[in-house]
Amino acid sequence: MMFKKPFQKRFDTCGQMHSLEALMASLIMIGVIVFAVEATSLTPLTSSTANAHIEAQLQTMGQDMLNVLSYTGLSHDSDLKNDVMNWNGTEYVWNGTVYKSSDSKNITLTNSSLAEMFEFIAIPRGIAHNVDFTCIGDNGITITLPYIYNGDPSDNAVIISKKVVLSDTDVGNTSAFMTNTGIPDADNSSGFYNIVNVEMTLWRM
């Protein structure tokens, strides 16, 4: 009975030390987990950061493409303007090989600088693309006319645009041009025809 008390006291002290060590280990593990979670959210490997990086790349690529097509040489119209002037109102769909009319599979898109640029840059890189021509109608409402359709854009799609100014002399027969394309003459009293906004939508497949 004389040795029971000191032994019991020593046993209680060891138990307290083990409990304290377990508590400290738990706190350390929680701290490591919190640190790991916070660090992971800041790395460039996360989905949101990667998507933002891809969107920035697509934005730059699309802007460069439109800038090149908008270049105007001496006494020449830009390739982008020629695409608008030569358009007959047909919507073309990429079928994996060529751009074909959505109304007639026998009609393909030819003499289009936009199409050639997509085939050279976007398609080999797996970048889907849509092109719409927008303009202001007689009633002041924006008109959207599809030119190239490649599918429904994803949530991470980017839109780049470039304006093309058309005059009556550019389109030639204004009545026929309006009937074929749906782009109206914004001012019948002058030589100004309309401003067409070329909207390019890009997204990664």
UniProtKB/TrEMBL annotation:
It holds the Pfam family DUF7288. InterPro entries: DUF7288. The chain crosses the membrane at residues 20-37. Keywords: Membrane, Transmembrane, Transmembrane helix. This is Uncharacterized protein. The lineage of its organism: Archaea, Methanobacteriati, Methanobacteriota, Stenosarchaea group, Methanomicrobia.
